[in-house]
Design a protein that fits this description.
- The structure holds three protein chains of three kinds.
- By secondary structure, chain A is of the alpha+beta class.
- Chain A contains three helices and three strands; from the N terminus they run ααβαββ.
- In chain A, β2 and β3 form a beta hairpin.
- By secondary structure, chain B is of the alpha/beta class.
- Helices cover 38% and strands 13% of the residues of chain B.
- Chain B contains 15 helices and eleven strands.
- Chain B has an eleven-stranded mixed β-sheet with strand order 1-3-2-4-6-5-10-11-9-7-8, sandwiched between helices.
- In chain B, α2 crosses α3, α9 crosses α11 and α9 packs across α12.
- By secondary structure, chain C is of the alpha+beta class.
- Chain C is 40% helix and 20% strand.
- Classes of the chains: A alpha+beta, B alpha/beta, C alpha+beta.
- Chains in contact: A-B, A-C, B-C.
- Chains A and B meet through α1, α2, α3 and β3 of A and α9, α10, α11, α12 and α13 of B.
- β3 of chain A pairs antiparallel with β10 of chain C.
Chain lengths: 104, 484, 481
């Protein structure tokens, strides 16, 4: 399988990566250069093979509902780019009235 | 260099005996680092350091809590930590612009355990951005250099940690592995590098690249130092759901273990026709020495080995694309202002991430996206199971440890691998262990044209003790030959 | 609402906040109303290197909900990452469950058809996930304020089958669901605080059609009433479009309560690509049969069973049953009173009129009411044994609400025990006659209809403790005598 310019643009949008026009052709070529090596997997017979996911028969360990939270050695304000009155501040969404929605 | 630099064991022994003050041990480390030029302009291996603070911390330990230092396995030992492992005072930038200047408000479990054992963190080491690379050329803060030959790469992604250990500054450093990022630079720099079993060491505080593959590893100039370091950081941690409750062995106890009854496998897929004959010869020599010491050698096969790189470069970027989504400029790190939220995200992330990280995020997003998940991610995770089954069967057949070359080449010059996939092939012998979750280590077995060659040992899940037994024996058998 | 020739088809997705002390994956408290970003830590802030560890209590409550909704609990379920960017989603993904959810294939009864058959709604799945934080768009000009106190709070999502055929049916489902979840104490289900949230999938099809129409998802529904209004509006919109020969676009609609309208959200359904994959930071959630059995056995009697039993055990009417079974606490209270008093009818009356009246008047929850069920039962027995009159009982009860004292004490202290002693009654009658000479004179002169007035005055003087029958006899004897 291979990707084209519009695939890369779509994926860049999903990943919130701004990709400049001039970088696109090279990126497409590089990604295809990588993806061509992946095609070999398509030829492997994996009938009945379970996908690797998490090991340990006992399952994920659980913690008690309580205990102390991990403290912050220095406050949010010391590492956050913008805060006000304890809130983290970000530029307002262009479509903020669709607040329940992810923006495309 | 390695002859003058003390081992962790010797430092700890002297500190416990009261013959060496921990702060003096730290000062000496900085002096050795200065002599080797580990900082910017030199090897560029050490990114962040605070000499005053490190020296004070070492001194305070004696004044405030000498009983703890006395008991510590690593009493007074100066250590370096890869820049993607959270420390409280020094920055944790992952070799990236997007985290430049970020100081973590919490500490990685591995670091806490090292400090509890008496060690002092003297600096954070250079790395490929977010551990994506095999040469440390992808660092936003410039490439690190190989102390053996500064015109060549130290390997990566933990190149800085390998370099500060190889240069003699510290006896032990922490690295991290996702596909070979400890073993490969260890091989390139002629030192020992251990990647433990997945789940052996807590990942809490290790900035995630590919969560199902990541594991903190240890560098040392000797097998013994690597064993001590691993023993300290290994073990269950309630903060990491994937850390295992398997008991931790005293790995250094393996140092005088006999090889009688130990079966060492030579997997044919790791010795292909195309393998550099000189690397083959060094590995065969190592195998021969182990046979002389009583080990049984068996030819074995891990038939799905050649699928490891394609699988790895689907699984790792897929997980990375998700793990790196948190770098959005909202809560910490770089924010590049732009009109509107989405534009700010895009500006921040395209400015903050370098080209290799960008490529892998795009690749990972693509293989997870609608319509491609089954063909890529799911398929890769199935083939990953086949790779893991290869190891299971070979270890179930009575083989204890595998010996292979660590890398297909010795350290290469800067810029030698311009094509991304060619660079990816540097991990061809190491990525399998991460995919299968088994432990592995690299140790020096000689040099070619002055450049170190590493042999890789691989063992079954949580069988690090046996792996160390073989490593100790091989190190002994080789003696100075390991560095010739 | 019905539109002739058309049928509404509704399925609901309900998010419910689990009643834990701490968040799903970290030890931060879930306490509501704290200052912004106070209840956060490296894990729920998604600081680099932090990792999730699952809350045992959240699992326990989720399993409890799943079995109460009749679901099959999967022995292995898998957490998955749902990837999307939003500033109140710190990790850039939500830990949720996708293709292997906690539980599947349940159903609940939401009412009875005219023919007596139960109306059932299928539960497709119940899965665990974490909440996002809050984005506040109207606090500061030009910017959005982010509060992550809610980020990581444990939720379950309950997805129904498209089994509802009207907005009223959807309302009934939601009320039933909420009542069950409150009965089993897994959630407060407080829509105002956001601990219960609803998204609705709705489609329209021709009456008699078997194929489902294209659905839209309606969001921003902040009350059950709004769910019903929004469903009707969206159904009308779809039918209008279809009748005009148009088609329905699969998209997200937002309900605007102020303008009473639904409108398309700006981003389209197709633009979402959540790139789900198994969460590598957690292992699969493994539950044994013992875990599930324990949850099943620890369930209290559910509302439907309780209502059925109230019919058979107490012979109560439908309205009384509806009220008394509305919450587990009230039903428990009623049953305690009924058991201790041996008089279910009176117990129902007193709980509905007295207890609920007191709860509503004072605003204190039932749990804090000072009247203990056993004491209320004693009072009911005192009435039926003739120790106090019905009128005196009202005063006794008011005192019980105020002081929490036992009814015997109050009746004795306030002189409310029924008085049959002739001398006291004669004294009160004499006093009333003396105080009301006009009425008394006319009565004694033979105006019999004034007897009721005089009896009332005597009763009042006795604070209700006089035996009214005796007073009548005594007054009547004065006229004839």
């Amino acid at each position: 399988m291979s990707v084209n310019v519009s695939d890369v643009l779509h994926v860049a949008k999903l990943a919130r990566l701004g990709v400049s026009e001039e970088r696109l052709p090279q990126l497409v070529a590089q990604l295809n250069g990588i993806l061509e090596h992946m095609d070999v997997l398509g030829k492997v017979d994996t009938t009945g093979v379970a996908a690797t996911e998490g090991v340990g028969a006992a399952g994920t360990p659980l913690r008690e509902d309580g205990g102390e939270p991990v403290p912050l050695a220095h406050p949010i304000e010391s590492f956050a780019p913008a805060t006000r009155d304890g809130f983290l501040i970000v530029p307002r969404l262009a479509t903020h009235d669709d607040a329940a929605e992810e923006t495309a | 260099m390695s002859t003058v630099a003390p081992t962790a064991r010797s430092i700890a022994t002297q500190v416990v005996a009261g013959k060496l003050a921990p702060d003096q041990a730290v000062r000496e480390a900085f002096a050795r680092g200065d002599a080797a030029g580990v900082g910017a302009g030199g090897l560029n291996a050490l990114l962040w350091t605070d000499r005053t603070r490190a020296t004070e911390q070492a001194r305070e330990r004696v004044v405030g809590d000498d009983t703890q230092v006395d008991r510590g396995l690593l009493a007074g030992v100066p250590i370096a930590v890869k820049d993607n492992i959270a420390t409280l005072e020094l920055p944790t930038s992952c070799g990236s612009r997007i985290l430049e200047g970020y100081v973590s408000p919490f500490e990685a479990t591995a670091v806490t355990r090292l400090r509890a054992a008496g060690a002092t963190v003297v600096g954070k080491t250079n790395m490929d951005e977010f551990a994506m690379g095999s040469s440390t050329e992808n660092s936003a803060f410039g490439p690190a250099r190989n102390p053996i030959d500064p015109s060549r790469v130290p390997g990566g992604s933990s190149g800085g940690s390998a370099a500060v250990v190889a240069a003699g500054m510290v006896p032990i450093a922490l690295g991290s592995e996702t596909g070979g990022s400890v073993r490969q630079p260890a091989a390139f720099c002629g030192i020992v590098g251990v990647k433990p079993t997945y789940g052996r060491v807590s990942r809490y505080g290790l900035v995630a690249f590919a969560s199902s593959l990541d594991q903190i590893g240890v560098f040392g100039r000797t097998v013994d130092d690597a064993a001590l370091g691993l023993q300290v950081i290994a073990g269950r941690d309630v903060m990491d759901s994937t850390s295992a409750s398997v008991p931790v062995a005293r790995y250094a106890d393996a140092r005088d273990a006999s090889l009688t009854g130990v079966v060492i496998g030579r997997p044919r897929e790791y010795f292909p026709e195309s393998l550099d004959a000189r690397i083959r010869e060094k590995c065969e020599r190592a195998i021969e020495l182990l046979r002389e010491r009583g080990a049984e050698i068996r030819d074995v096969s891990l038939p799905h080995t050649d699928l490891a790189i394609p699988v790895y470069y689907i699984v790792a970027p897929a997980e990375a694309s998700s793990n790196l989504a948190r770098f959005d400029g909202v809560r910490y790190g770089l924010r590049v202002p732009a009109p509107g939220l989405v534009a700010t995200y895009e500006a921040t992330r395209s400015r903050g991430f370098g080209p290799e990280v960008t490529r892998r995020i795009l690749l990972g997003t693509y293989v997870l996206s609608a319509g491609y998940y089954d063909a890529y991610y799911r398929k890769a995770q199935q083939v990953r199971s086949l790779i893991a089954d290869d190891f299971r069967s070979v270890f179930a057949s009575g083989v204890h440890v595998l010996l292979t070359p660590t890398t297909p080449t010795t350290a290469f010059p800067f810029g030698a691998k311009a094509d991304p996939y060619e660079m990816y092939l540097s991990d061809i012998f190491t990525a399998t262990a991460n995919l299968a979750g088994v432990p592995g280590m690299s140790l020096p077995v000689g040099r070619i044209e002055g450049l170190p060659v590493g042999a890789q040992l691989l063992a079954g899940h949580f069988d690090e003790a046996r792996m160390f037994a073989v490593a100790y024996a091989l190190e002994n058998a080789l003696g100075e030959e390991a560095h010739r | 609402m019905t539109i002739p020739g058309w049928e509404m088809v509704v399925g609901l997705e309900v998010h419910v906040q689990l009643k834990t002390r701490t968040k799903a994956f970290c030890n931060c408290t879930v306490e509501y109303g704290a200052a912004p970003n106070v209840n956060t830590c490296p894990i729920c802030l998604a600081l680099p290197g932090s990792l999730p560890v699952l809350n045992a209590r959240a699992v326990e409550l989720a399993v409890r909900a799943a079995v109460a909704l009749g679901c099959t609990v999967n022995h292995v379920s898998v957490f998955a990452r749902k990837n999307y960017f939003y500033p109140d989603l710190p990790k850039g993904y939500q830990i949720s469950q996708f293709d292997r959810p906690l539980a599947e294939n349940g159903q609940i009864e939401i009412g009875t058809r005219v023919d007596g058959d139960a109306i059932r709604v299928g539960i497709t799945r119940v899965h665990m996930e974490e909440d996002a934080g809050k984005s506040i768009h109207d606090r500061y000009p030009g910017v959005t304020a982010i509060d992550l106190n809610r980020a990581g709070v444990p939720l379950i999502e309950i997805v129904s089958e498209p089994d509802m055929r009207s907005s009223e049916g959807a309302g009934a489902y939601l009320r039933t669901l909420k009542q069950i979840l409150q009965y089993i104490a897994v959630s407060d289900c407080d829509m105002e605080k956001g601990s219960l949230r609803v998204d609705a999938n709705v489609s329209a099809r021709r009456q008699g059609a078997t194929k489902l129409g294209t659905k839209t998802e309606v969001k921003n529904l902040n009350s059950f009433a709004n769910v019903e209004r929004a469903l009707d509006l969206e159904f009308q919109r779809q039918v209008r479009a279809l009748e005009a020969g148009g088609s329905i676009e699969q998209q997200t609609m937002l309900f605007d309560a102020v303008r009473n309208e639904v409108r398309a959200a700006r981003s389209k359904e197709g633009s979402h690509d959540y790139r789900y994959f198994p969460e590598p930071d957690l292992l699969p959630l493994v539950l044994t049969s013992t875990d599930v059995d324990r949850a099943r056995h620890s369930l209290p009697e559910l509302p439907a069973a309780r209502r059925a039993r109230f019919v058979s055990d107490y012979a109560l009417g439908p309205v009384e049953i509806e009220v008394l079974s509305s919450s587990a606490a009230l039903a428990d209270y009623f049953e305690a009173v009924a058991r201790h008093s041996g008089n279910a009818k009176a117990a129902a009356n007193w709980v509905i009129n007295g207890v609920l009246g007191a709860v509503n008047a004072s605003g204190t929850p039932l749990e804090q009411l000072r009247v203990r069920p056993a004491d209320l039962a004693s009072m009911i027995r005192m009435v039926s044994d003739g120790i106090i009159s019905g009128a005196a009982a009202k005063q006794v009860f008011a005192e019980m609400v105020r002081t929490g004292e036992r009814p015997e004490q109050i009746a004795k202290r306030d002189g409310l025990l029924r008085v049959e002693d002739d001398s006291a009654l004669v004294r009160w009658i004499d006093e009333v006659i003396a105080e009301h000479p006009t009425e008394a004179g006319r009565f004694l002169a033979g105006e019999r209809k004034l007897q009721g007035v005089l009896v009332g005055l005597v009763m009042k003087k006795s604070k209700g403790s006089a035996d009214a029958k005796k007073v009548n006899q005594l007054l009547a004897s004065r006229v004839s005598g």
